[in-house]
Design a protein that fits this description.
Blueprint (H helix, E strand, L loop, with lengths): L30 H10 L1 H21 L4 E10 L19 H11 L2 H11 L5 H4 L13 H14 E5 L5 E8 L2 H59 L3 H39 L5 H6 L7 H20 L8 H90 L6 E6 L12 H26 L6 H8 L3 E6 L14 H5 L1 H4 L4 H14 L9 E6 L6 H13 L5 E5 L7 H4 L8 H6 L4 H4 L1 E3 L2 E7 L8 H5 L2 H13 L2 E5 L8 H6 L4 E7 L5 H14 L3 E9 L28 E2 L7 E3 L3
Parallel strand pairs: 5-12, 6-10, 6-11, 7-9, 7-10, 11-12
Antiparallel strand pairs: 1-3, 1-4, 2-3, 8-9, 13-14
Helix pairs in contact: 2-12, 4-6, 4-7, 7-11, 8-11, 10-11, 16-17
Length: 751
């Protein structure tokens, strides 16, 4: 066989079989698929249609004889609005919102409860359907009230007439008179409500306004009293006169404060100057200030100057001890003491003047601050007075406006009602209102069919079975190599006159049938699946038993052997072998004896007389450990030898999910073909099978869908020649059926 295996790529246009989660057409929800689903679940639609017709007929025959009475009313604001006191306000409302509001009022529980109470509908036999003499019921009972009002809701219809101010009220019941009476009573109570509600609202507003007016009146009186108290505080002259007097006083105090400050500064400077100067120079300094020279100090200084001059003249001729000189000296000393005393007196006088000026300034400042505080307080009183005056005016104005509005509301209490005119009064209908029987049947049939479609799709979504090639490809991610149709042999030739090969191998018995053409298509798909060279070792397996892998392997081996190629068919199902039964051969020698060394390959190989190029290697006796035999080195050696002797080696293996024999052999071949029986497998089985093959590294070529009814909705017209089959001369056809043996797969001819 060689150390390398040919890995088959996916067929053209098919998804990659080595990639998990990829499928052909996965996720497609086309219209054709929906139609195919409906065709497959046609029985659901038929049942739904029949149920719809039956229920529609029953509903049409048993529909109640209801009498429908109607009335037309007009809703408008009316001419009373022209007499409103506030003519500038537009009270008209012709919008759709207003009409919708009126519809809700007509359908309100309060209005219907009023009608039920006035007409005593809870005890009306025509309304309740109860027999005469039944116990009396009261609307005060919540259950009775809910039942009666609910019945009115269910039978009453209020509809707007487009582009008008009118609406139609319709009521249906078993009594013609009761229907008309209920409609007329509803209209009457609605008209009464239209007048009563505005009056009640006006009374509520009037009561609220009376309360507000009392509170507002007390507020006006309080504001007025506070304003009068503040006026008395400000004085009888009024705030303006008092404010002018205070302003004049402040101006005088400001002037006096300036004069006192100047006087204090002058006295302070004079005092500081006298205190810091020498007595001998004080005179000159004082002389520098005109009009301030004291006369006594001036006279003393003059006398001292004359005495000093005389003393200086006499000192030149007289001695110091001269009595005259001593007398002059005593005179100068006395004058000096007098000058010092005068200087002290002047300093004391200046200090007292300074202190007096400062005290005057302080008194002026205190008076000014007092006047300023008084002015500030009067300013606060002015603000408070202004606020009180404004509050009083506002409260007084609001009080007058509310009092006027109260009087206006009392006058307009009867002018704000919506006017309702009953254009057509409800009359008892002559005939009951009933729907036509065809309309009821058609309507119910359509609804049941729609429900049937929904049920069909729900059943389809819950169905895990795989019934068409697109579903299988989408789940497995493998391309389809061929679709093998289901055929049934019907021939006048007796089965006893046919060989076992002719009975069990359909491609030999019916060479021109669709069954045979499908295997030719399978052969073409396998031989053209790879570029370079076709696969030599081809393994057929399935997910579960009875899917037709033995039939598929046997027929494909015969198709391959019909040419010049030499083909060997190996029965590698060592647990339930069946190939030798299909060809009418013995199973004493075979694969197990060759692997065990009990026989040679030449002894175990058996020939098919009808096909000279086809050899069969049966399974032989069932071994105790089939898996170990197939995974042995002897099996690899045998495959290499067969590969050198034959053009194609076709192997029939056990199901993948039953045993691991198929997984072991899959790693030693060039192509693995998965056989799936139509209508037998499901998604879980196919997912598990795909995962096992991919994890084992098997060279998956694709899948074959077996035993397909090509006349079914999913496969109708799948073959281009479905309407132009070959058939046989005697008109016989074939169907592959499970054969007797250890695997119940197709293959035995059946009449």
């Amino acid at each position: 066989m060689g150390s390398e295996k040919t890995q088959l790529p996916p067929a053209v246009g098919a998804p990659d079989p080595q990639r998990l989660g990829t499928g052909f057409g996965a996720g497609d929800t086309s219209l054709s698929e929906a139609v195919a689903t409906l065709r497959k679940r046609l029985w659901v639609l038929i049942v739904a249609g029949l149920l719809g017709i039956a229920y529609g007929s029953y509903e049409a025959l048993t529909q109640p004889r209801l009498y429908e009475a109607s009335s037309i009313i007009q809703v408008h604001n009316g001419a009373s609005n022209e007499y409103r006191l506030d003519a500038g306000f537009d009270y008209s409302d012709d919008s759709q919102t207003k009409m919708n509001t009126e519809v809700l009022i007509l359908e309100s529980d309060t209005l219907l409860y009023t009608v039920a109470r006035e007409m005593d509908l809870a005890n009306n036999p025509d309304f309740t359907g109860a027999a005469a003499g039944a116990p009396r019921r009261s609307l005060d009972n919540p259950k009775v009230r809910a039942s009666v009002v609910g019945a009115l809701h269910g039978n009453l219809r209020v509809s707007l007439i487009p582009r008008t101010e009118m609406m139609r009220l319709t009521y249906s019941s078993f009594s013609a008179k009761l229907s008309a009476d209920i409609v007329n009573r509803i209209v009457f109570d609605y008209i009464q409500r239209a007048f009563q509600v505005p009056v009640q609202q006006t009374k509520m507003v009037s009561g609220w306004l009376d309360t507000e007016l009392d509170e507002l009146k007390a507020e006006v009186e309080r504001s007025q009293q506070q304003m009068m108290d503040l006026e008395r505080k400000l004085g009888v002259l009024g705030f303006d006169s008092t404010h002018n007097q205070l302003q004049t006083s402040l101006e005088g105090l400001l002037t006096a404060e300036g004069v006192a400050k100047i006087a204090r500064i002058t006295a302070e400077q004079r005092y500081l100057m006298i205190r810091s100067m020498d007595a001998s120079t004080i005179g000159e300094s004082i002389d520098a200030t005109p009009g301030t020279m004291p006369g006594e100090l001036y006279a003393l200084r003059s006398q001292l100057a004359m005495a000093r001059a005389e003393y200086s003249q006499l000192s030149a001729t007289l001695g110091a001890n001269n009595p005259r000189m001593k007398a002059l000296q005593d005179q100068m000393d006395e004058l000096t003491k007098q000058i010092d005393a005068e200087h002290t007196r002047l300093e004391t006088q200046a200090r007292e003047n300074y202190l007096a000026a400062r005290k005057t300034e302080d008194a002026t400042d205190q008076e000014l601050e007092a006047r300023k505080t008084e002015a500030y307080n009067q300013g606060n009183d002015l603000v408070r007075y202004t606020l009180l005056q404004r509050e009083y005016e506002q409260n007084h104005t609001l009080y007058d406006a509310l009092e006027q509005r109260l009087e206006t509301a009392k006058v307009e209490s009867g002018l704000s009602a919506t006017e309702v005119d009953q254009v057509d009064k409800a009359l008892p209908p002559v005939n009951p209102t009933m729907r036509s029987m065809p309309t009821i049947i058609v309507t119910n049939t359509i609804f049941f069919l729609l429900g049937g479609i929904v049920v069909a799709f729900i059943i389809e979504s819950l169905d895990t079975g795989l019934r068409n090639i697109l579903q299988i490809e989408a789940v497995t991610g493998m391309p389809s190599l061929a679709v093998i149709p289901r055929s049934r042999r019907s021939s006048s030739e007796p089965a006893a006159a046919m060989s076992a090969v002719q009975r069990n191998i359909g491609v030999l018995n019916q060479p021109k049938s669709q069954f045979t053409e499908a295997f030719r298509s399978l052969r073409t798909s396998l031989l053209l699946a790879t570029t370079g060279q076709p696969p030599k070792f081809i393994l057929f397996t399935s997910a579960t038993p009875s899917e037709g892998k033995t039939t598929t392997a046997s027929n494909l081996a015969c198709i391959l052997a019909q040419g010049e190629a030499r083909v060997v068919l190996i029965d590698a199902d060592l647990r339930r072998p069946n190939v030798h039964h299909r060809f009418g051969l013995t199973g004493k020698l075979g694969l197990t004896t060759v692997l065990a060394g009990a026989s040679t390959l030449e002894q175990a190989i058996q020939h098919v007389p009808e096909l000279p190029n086809l050899d069969i290697l049966p399974s032989g006796p069932v071994p105790p450990f089939p898996t170990e035999s197939l995974s042995s080195e002897a099996m690899q050696t045998l495959l290499k030898k067969l590969g050198s002797l034959y053009t194609y080696v076709v192997i029939d293996s056990p199901p993948i999910l039953s045993v691991t024999d198929g997984v072991i052999l899959a790693r030693s071949v060039d192509a693995v073909v998965l056989v799936v029986r139509h209508g037998k497998t499901n998604r879980n089985v196919m997912n598990r099978t795909r995962d096992l093959l991919l994890r084992s590294g098997a060279p998956i070529a694709g899948l074959v869908l077996n035993a397909v009814d090509i006349n079914s909705p999913d496969y109708y017209g799948y073959y281009g020649y479905s309407g132009y089959s070959y058939g046989s001369a005697d008109g016989s056809t074939w169907e592959t059926q499970p054969a007797a043996g250890d695997e119940p797969s197709e293959g035995r001819a059946k009449r």
